[in-house]
Structures are given as structure tokens and as C-alpha cells.
């Protein structure tokens, strides 16, 4: 927990084949590595029983944060059930 930083804004853009895609959001938590570099994006969710479609949406959201920030790993954490899903 001492390496977690809560609620950080993330914004940026990436070029796609046909257009520029803008991303803006709030990362629920960011884990800072021993070397001081961000190493993990964490997104907390309160869904009790998320559908496959909802899980895909949450993973896509975290993946966009990773693409914009260059952080290598992400995780969707369902706080009610304690289930963890790695991204990508």
C-alpha cells in the first residue's frame, strides 16, 4: 500500500490508422515501483456480478490508460468479490 498513489488524471492521444484517439480518465490507483517509475494501473470496480461485456469494457478502459501512459501492466479489481483481472 505505501507504493499506491490514488486518483490520478490520465490524458493523452494516440494515432490510429485513420484518426487521432483522445483518452481522458481518472486512474483509481497507480503503483510506483522500487525505482520510482509507475509500474501498474489499478481500476477498482464495485460490480457484484459483472457481465462479460462489462468486463471487456473495463479491460479496454485500462488498456487505453496503459497505451497513453506507457505503463506496462494494469489490473481490474472487483472489490465486492475480490476478483482480479490482469490487463492486457
Shape: globular
Q: Mean pLDDT, nearest integer?
A: 90
Strand order of the largest sheet: 1-2-3-4-5
Counting copies of identical and different chains, the oligomeric state is single chain
Strand content range = over 45%
> What is the element string, with H for helices and E for strands?
EEEHEE
**Radius of gyration from the CA trace?**
13 Å
Please mark out the parts with pLDDT under 50 across 5 or more consecutive residues, or reply none.
none
Distance between the termini: 23 Å
Q: Write down how many β-strands occur, each being a DSSP E stretch of 2 or more residues.
A: 5
Class by alpha and beta content? alpha+beta
Q: Which range best describes the helical content: under 10%, 10-25%, 25-40%, 40-55%, 55-70% or over 70%?
A: 10-25%
Count of DSSP-assigned helices: 1
What's the main sheet like?
5 strands, mixed
Can you tell me about this structure?
The two termini are 23 Å apart. This protein has one helix spanning 52-69, and strands at 4-15, 20-32, 38-45, 73-78, 83-87. It has 88 residues and is an alpha+beta fold. A 5-stranded mixed sheet has the order 1-2-3-4-5, covered by helices on one side.
Amino acid at each position: 500500500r505505501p507504493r499506491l498513489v490514488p486518483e490520478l488524471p490520465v490524458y493523452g492521444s494516440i494515432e490510429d490508422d485513420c484518426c487521432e484517439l483522445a483518452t481522458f480518465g481518472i486512474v483509481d490507483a497507480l503503483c510506483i515501483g522500487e525505482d520510482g517509475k509507475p509500474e501498474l494501473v489499478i481500476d477498482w470496480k464495485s460490480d457484484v456480478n459483472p457481465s462479460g461485456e462489462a468486463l471487456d469494457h473495463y479491460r479496454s478502459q485500462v488498456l487505453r490508460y496503459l497505451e497513453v501512459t506507457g505503463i506496462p501492466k494494469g489490473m481490474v479489481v472487483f472489490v465486492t468479490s475480490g476478483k482480479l483481472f490482469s490487463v492486457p
